[in-house]
Design brief:
Length: 362
């Protein structure tokens, strides 16, 4: 029988349904003084009450924490597993999560019980094929869900198996790909390699240039770019002569390389591109959808929103139509979250009442 460490308090065995997982995966985190989650409409789904949050996993649980206490919550913000680990990772599709106890890593199930005893120097998430990368001292290998070693420790660095059932691994200073039996499907010959994307192509760097390989290790788009990101919804960002553009899966230019910044296309088939200091949203034909008003760092969120953080750490959330949904603003020395019309939605008060309350405190 699995044993329960005293430092783990199991709260609930209720995990999200498939329908609930769909909503959970639409969540994106946000932080004011504390952190919470927004849904795809820009509404607060989980109130900002945590010191830190991680993204929701495929089973609809997210690791969040306050102080030295970490818990796993569902998309309603309800505690599913209450934990006190040195560290922890996300729950994978097989309902196992890596945890660190007494300087060693192991795995727990969503019931809070130890599934694989902490014994590894480091551990990463299980893949859909039931294999997880673990490290002993300086070398990485792979185990199955019973903790049995299936690919011996021999690599300098590894990533989890992706949807292609291949894993990128590093040996002798170079990257390559192996299958579930540990056999090489490419030589370890790349300076850099990405996971295989949803079209089963992976960006790789060889001899200073980026190209793309397929799951058989064939170079289907020859190394020719100064930089390349993985394909996202049919197009990939590439760089030539200092400018960024997009190619299709045949390696043909789909959107001319003329941008100073670019992010991949999102679930709504919209991407953000930058000319000079101005960000804009475009469609897959390169047609302008909207110009955004802020300069700074932009992040495409998993729920289809775009987040811009300017040089003063103010944040702005736009939808895929280029409409401002939310922004942060300092009110009487307190960071607030506002709708586009200026209405405060967090804290749950008006600007007048907030300033009045803070004046009393002072």
């Amino acid at each position: 029988m699995k044993r329960l460490f005293l430092i783990i308090l199991f709260i609930s065995s209720t995990v999200c349904t498939a329908k609930e997982n769909m909503f959970a995966n639409e969540m994106s985190s946000f932080c004011l003084i504390e952190c919470g989650f927004l849904n795809s409409k820009g509404e607060i789904a989980v109130e900002p009450v945590f010191d830190y949050v991680n993204r929701f996993s495929s089973i609809g649980l997210a690791l969040v924490g306050s102080g030295y206490k970490s818990v796993f919550i569902n998309f309603r913000g309800e505690i599913i597993v209450d934990t006190k680990f040195d560290d922890a990772g996300a729950f994978a599709a097989n309902f196992l999560a890596a945890v660190k106890l007494n300087n060693h890593w192991g795995y727990i199930g969503d019931d809070g019980l130890i599934a694989i005893e902490p014994q590894f120097t480091e551990a990463k998430s299980f893949a859909a094929n039931g294999l997880a990368p673990v490290r002993w001292e300086d070398e990485w290998g792979f185990i199955n869900t019973k903790g049995v070693v299936v690919i011996r420790a021999q690599f300098e660095d590894v990533y989890s198996f992706d949807d292609s059932a291949l894993a990128r691994v590093k040996k002798n200073g170079k990257w390559g790909f192996i299958n579930e039996k540990g056999a090489w499907i490419t030589k370890n010959e790349f300076d850099f390699a990405n996971d295989f994307a949803d079209n089963f192509l992976a960006a790789v760097k060889k001899d200073g240039k980026y190209g793309f390989i397929d799951t058989k290790g064939n170079m289907v788009i020859q190394p020719q770019f100064d930089y390349a990101a993985n394909f996202a919804h049919g197009l990939a960002i590439v760089q030539k002569s200092g400018k960024l553009g997009y190619i299709n899966e045949n390696g043909e230019i789909a959107i001319r390389a003329e941008f100073d910044g670019a992010v991949g296309f999102n679930i709504n088939n919209v991407a953000a591109v930058k000319r000079g200091k101005e960000w804009s949203l475009i469609d897959k034909k390169g047609k302008l959808i909207a110009k955004l008003k802020q300069d700074g760092f932009i992040e495409p969120l998993s729920n289809g929103l775009f987040l811009i953080e300017d040089n003063f750490y103010n944040q702005y959330w736009y939808n895929s139509n280029g409409e401002l949904l939310l922004y942060t603003d300092t009110v009487c020395s307190i960071m607030t979250l506002k709708k586009a019309d200026g209405t405060i939605i967090w804290p749950k008060t008006t600007e007048k009442e907030l300033c009045k309350y803070l004046t009393k405190l002072n």
